[in-house]
């Protein structure tokens, strides 16, 4: 039995408190990770607040984990004790369904989420299936790598999925934890990047991270000035927007793709898609293999989320910082 020292919410919306639990003996295909850093994602907050109605308490958030392999079961492949690794929103999948056999483990019908019905990474240890415990490539900065395992792969996957070309003109809606990583990826991809943001205080930082221009999407005139020009728009916000006005900025055959979990139905006029053969889509995170490729891409192009570091013991302060909209741009907890 291994004791885990963690931080847990004991009820919806409550602050986190110290919590200890015992890990049962390790399964054949399981890996225990010693947590070095864990990113703080909006989904952690949604789970703490039970916004999606699937939280179980005590709830230990944390699903942007980097650390090292502490222990492994007898059937674990490709890892050894001491390896530097990361684990994100998903931590296990069945490994035998068509999606898993096709290398799309993130679409497995029984994929397990790290903080849904199991304990996450705001702790000194966390457990996952070997397939989702991803070795870190040499040269990756562990202090900044955590957010790549949720926010990072969430915005990297649609670039590949939608076949975005280096010659494309693209837009990113919302420049927060996810959006700022999308801008960095799309810039390195070769695209002309338009950031949609209505916060003038962020403009300078947005241009510095690689956007070619910042457009205030709340101003209809500026939207009109880029009408029909974008091949791909990625929405990273979770609020209802005037989606039709964004559809008008798409070029023919352009795609509006959302990774922001907007809870209200999205109003999409059929004619806005029909004329111009436009489409609307969405995606969760990405596959195991694509996560590995993304990490290599990050090392090659020196891409990291812009992070603010808090000590794990100050997790409540970090949560308040995020909730107040002050994060620039992703918070990481140091164990
Ligand atoms: Zn997340
Ligand atoms: Zn499966």
Polypeptide structure, described:
With 335 residues, the protein is of the alpha/beta class. Helix 6 links the parallel strand 11 and strand 12. The strands form four sheets. Strands 3, 4, 5, 8, 9, 16 and 17 form a seven-stranded mixed sheet that branches. The longest helix is centred in the last third of the chain and has 14 residues. 44% of the residues are buried. The protein has eleven helices and 17 strands. Helix 4 packs across helix 5. The structure holds zinc ion (2 copies). The site of one zinc ion (ZN) has 6 residues, from loops. Belongs to the zinc-containing alcohol dehydrogenase family. It comes from Flaviramulus aquimarinus. Keywords: Metal-binding, Oxidoreductase, Zinc.
The computed structural class is alpha/beta
As for the number of domains, it is 2
The H-and-E topology, N to C, reads as EEEHEEEHEEEHHEHEHEHEHEHEHEHE
Mean pLDDT: 96
CATH topology of the largest domain: Quinone Oxidoreductase, Chain A, domain 1
Write the CATH homologous superfamily of the largest domain: Medium-chain alcohol dehydrogenases, catalytic domain
> Which range does the strand content fall in?
25-35%
pLDDT < 50 stretches: none
Which CATH architecture of the largest domain would you pick? Alpha-Beta Complex
The ligands bound in this entry are:
zinc ion
The CATH C-level class name of the largest domain: Alpha Beta
Largest sheet: 7 strands, mixed
Termini Cα gap? 21 Å
Helical stretch tally: 11
Give the CA-based shape.
globular
Instruction: State the share of residues found in helices, binned by percent.
Output: 10-25%
Radius of gyration equals 20 Å
Total beta-strand segments: 17
Organism: Flaviramulus aquimarinus
Cofactor: Zn(2+)
Protein name: NAD(P)-dependent alcohol dehydrogenase
Domain Enoyl reductase (ER): 14-333
């Amino acid at each position: 039995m291994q004791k885990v020292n963690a931080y847990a919410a004991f009820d919806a919306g409550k602050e986190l408190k110290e919590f200890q639990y015992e890990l049962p003996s390790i399964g054949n295909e399981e890996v225990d990770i010693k947590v070095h850093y864990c990113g703080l994602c909006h989904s952690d907050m949604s789970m703490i607040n039970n916004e999606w109605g699937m939280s179980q308490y005590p709830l230990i958030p944390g699903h942007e984990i980097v650390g090292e392999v502490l222990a492994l079961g007898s059937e674990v492949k490709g890892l050894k004790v001491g390896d530097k690794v990361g684990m994100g929103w998903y931590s296990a999948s069945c490994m035998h369904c068509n999606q898993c056999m096709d290398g799309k483990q993130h679409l497995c019908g029984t994929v397990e989420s790290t903080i849904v019905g199991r304990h996450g990474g705001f702790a000194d240890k966390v457990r996952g299936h070997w397939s989702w415990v991803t070795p870190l490539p040499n040269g990756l900065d562990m202090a900044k790598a955590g957010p790549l395992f949720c926010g990072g792969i969430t915005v990297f996957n649609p670039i590949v999925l939608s076949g975005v070309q280096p010659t494309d003109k693209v837009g990113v809606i919302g420049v927060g934890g996810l959006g700022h990583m999308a801008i960095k990826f799309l810039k390195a991809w070769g695209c002309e990047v338009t950031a949609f943001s209505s916060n003038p205080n962020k403009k300078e930082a947005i241009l510095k991270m690689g956007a070619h221009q910042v457009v205030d999407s709340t101003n209809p005139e500026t939207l009109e000035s880029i009408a029909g020009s974008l091949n791909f728009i990625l929405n990273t916000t979770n609020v209802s927007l005037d989606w039709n006005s964004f559809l008008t900025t798409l070029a023919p055959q352009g795609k509006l793709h959302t990774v922001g979990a907007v809870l209200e139905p999205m109003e999409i006029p059929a004619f806005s898609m029909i004329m111009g053969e436009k489409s609307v889509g969405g995606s969760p995170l990405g596959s195991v293999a694509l996560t590995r490729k993304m990490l290599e891409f990050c090392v090659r192009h020196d891409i990291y989320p812009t992070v603010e570091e808090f000590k794990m013991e100050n997790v409540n302060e970090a949560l308040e910082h995020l909730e107040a909209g002050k994060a620039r741009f992703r918070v990481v907890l140091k164990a």
